[in-house]
Amino acid sequence: MPSFDVLTVLPGLFSGFLTEGVIGRAIKSGKVSVKIHNLRDFTTDKHRVVDDVPYGGGPGMVLKPEPIFRAFDHICEERGKKPHVILTEPWGETFTQEKAVELSKKENILIICGRYEGVDERVKAIVDEEISIGNYVLTGGELPGMVIMDAVIRLMPGVLGCRDSLEADSFSDRGLMGYPNYTRPAEYRGMKVPKVLLSGHHKKIELWRKEKSIERTYLKNSELIKKLLKEKRFSKEEERIVREV
Amino acid sequence: MPSFDVLTVLPGLFSGFLTEGVIGRAIKSGKVSVKIHNLRDFTTDKHRVVDDVPYGGGPGMVLKPEPIFRAFDHICEERGKKPHVILTEPWGETFTQEKAVELSKKENILIICGRYEGVDERVKAIVDEEISIGNYVLTGGELPGMVIMDAVIRLMPGVLGCRDSLEADSFSDRGLMGYPNYTRPAEYRGMKVPKVLLSGHHKKIELWRKEKSIERTYLKNSELIKKLLKEKRFSKEEERIVREV
């Protein structure tokens, strides 16, 4: 069974994540194992101190190396092998869907949740990659840890039921945006569902969805459309739509 | 007091977020109010159904409009005014630190947690902006909701204590990466702290940190360095370092 170990100073933050929704069900049904480790359990002093002031001065506190190395040794022993180690870091490589696919093939992953102030640089001796989830500052690396696990676990075999999944289609494969969705009622507070979707005419519906998807993508990211056009990744019909928008 | 309302089908996912860490403390001490609303509480049928099949066919389920509009009406009435409404959406605008700063000045924010399959398009009539936290697919819009709240709440007055905060310095202001941090012990498992940091020589320490910050940034994002150089946003000393790396 694939496994995640998470090393954090705030294990309580993960309580909802471990029991609710798609991920909660995946853990409950044994599709994946997720174990949260409290960094403080790997300290040896009475006050269970995990951070200290930076050498050379400056603001903020730095996570000490010893508890992290001790936790790493413990997890390696418990799992019987060295996991793939990720450090969540505001200046790490930006997380993408391609990275999620790559990580979904790893057997054991350890996520060390960083803090914005920093982790003692020597910890990077055991880190395989530093990952950031985007260009914004968070209070800690715990939410990024959950985001990474969520994106990776949903790709694991048997995790997504058909109700949850959107089949990889030719739109999303090429990075095109989704088309507008509507469900019942056909009219609500004066707002109607586009007639074509009620027509039952599959060819027309498909064409309308293609138009909307290409139009939306063009408005948000015209570069992508130009790139796909250059690489001849549109069908003839799609190319005609592109020329129109 | 600034407030967040969150509309979700998985309220339990937020349990850790509301009580732990910096955000938990901010809520407890009355710096911000966060209220999680269960979308199912705004259904009127016995089975409390919140989604339905899409008009026109296709995979996945779509969040129905009525419970969302009913919840919106309820929240507007409860808060006495219309909140700023965000829909977490894989195809929305990408969240950034600038957006976090902008949102930290709003008084009332409502986050509607989308689902990957989609939300009935008519809901967008009440939505002010659609936000994505990055180019990856998640099981739902709840983690993005927490990421947005985390980034925004930490910027609110009185939320960050001096232990948590990293003063905005001239590095991060310009998008430069942080320098390596070290704390005690000076030697651990054969790995030593760079001598300069132990020297007590403040000028030298400052110079070393500048070098490391510029070097790291150059390796990850040389375009940014070129841009800052062009815009003359380096000091003379920094420019010399840039020429060297």
Name of the level-1 CATH class of the largest domain in chain A: Alpha Beta
The major pleated sheet of chain A works out as:
5 strands, parallel
- The global form of chain A is elongated
The CATH architecture of the largest domain in chain A comes to 3-Layer(aba) Sandwich
Structural class of chain A: alpha/beta
Helix content of chain A: 25-40%
- What radius of gyration of chain A results from the CA coordinates? 23 Å
Provide the CATH superfamily of the largest domain in chain A.
SPOUT methyltransferase, trefoil knot domain
Termini of chain A, distance in Å?
A: 48 Å
Based on the structure, what is the oligomeric state of the protein chains? homodimer
What string gives the helices and strands of chain A in order? Answer: EHHEEEHEHEEHHEEHHHH
In terms of DSSP E residues, the strand content of chain A is 15-25%
Number of domains of chain A: 2
Summarize model confidence as the mean pLDDT of chain A.
93
- Please provide the count of β strands of chain A: 9
Task: Characterise this structure.
The structure is a homodimer of 245-residue chains. Chain A is an alpha/beta fold and 245 residues long. Chain A has two domains: 3-153, 3-Layer(aba) Sandwich (Alpha/beta knot), CATH 3.40.1280.10; 170-244, Trp Operon Repressor, Chain A, CATH 1.10.1270.20. In chain A, 38% of the residues lie in helices and 17% in strands. Chain A is built from ten helices and nine strands. The first copy, chain A, has helices at residues 15-19, 21-28, 65-79, 97-103, 142-153, 170-173, 195-198, 202-220, 222-230, 236-244, and strands at residues 3-8, 33-38, 51-52, 62-63, 84-94, 108-113, 129-132, 187-188, 191-192. In chain A, the strands form three sheets. In chain A, strands 2-1-6-5-7 form a five-stranded parallel β-sheet, with helices on both faces. In chain A, β5, α4 and β6 form a beta-alpha-beta unit. In chain A, α8 crosses α9 (222-230). The termini of chain A are far apart. The model of chain A has no long low-confidence stretch (mean pLDDT 93). Chains A and B meet through α1, α2, β3, β4 and α3 of A and α1, α2, β3, β4 and α3 of B.
